[in-house]
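User: Before I run my own analysis I want an independent prediction to cross-check against. Here's the chain; please return only the structure tokens and, at the end, one sentence I can use as a sanity check.
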Amino acid sequence: MVRPVFTLAAHYMRMWDYASAGRVDYFVANSQFIASRIWKTYRRESTVIHPPVCIPNMEALADAGEYYLTVGRLADYKRVDLAVEACTKMGRPLRVVGDGPQYRSLKRIAGPTVQFLGAVSDREVHEQFSHCRALLFPGEEDFGIVPVEAQGFGRPVIAYASGGALETVRGITPHGPQVEDPTGVFFPEQTLSSLANGISFFEMQEYQFSPIKIRRHSLQFDAAEFKSRMAEFALFATEEFRQAKHFGGKHPLVR
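Assistant: Structure tokens:
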């Protein structure tokens, strides 16, 4: 019943949204992926500041186990079904952390190697991150905090090559260029065969992944880095606004 009403109102909502965006002084995007959408929609530049991720303080990294891991809400767009089907088909152990509307349907297609842990405590999530073989990330996210969290524990990521993962994972592919200190593997399509091939490629290249270097890569997304960059941006924007008022509403350096 809502759809016809929205269809009638959508045109006016778009006009209002575009007009509102024109009154924004600065856009801050959480990824280059979103910055490109802002440009496409509003024709406005953005400053990219990645969101804060709580990287745990660790004296030593744990040894990897044999299981793959997926973490997050079990919703359609997360594409957890691909991880469940791929690990079922390949006979690989998979642990699924999270709950959501797809919980029952995913359990129906899961084989004996797939274990559903449901919603667990933060401490338990950290324990699963610490010992997984790799994180499977088959969805497309604006940024994607979960892959960064996994890398914070020194664990590699097998991710769909789209969205924020392209910025947070230093991924390798079978026919792509050499990557120094890789932190994961990219697969090109959101299909069962593509993810399965990505898992197989990861297992052939597993020797390349250094837990210490993976964790070191994740630190650039730590909360302290976010605070520093956001504070720097706020000071810049405030100073530019002050100078713009001094020069009659237009900054002298703006063409």
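Sanity check: Residues 250-255 have pLDDT under 50 and may be disordered.
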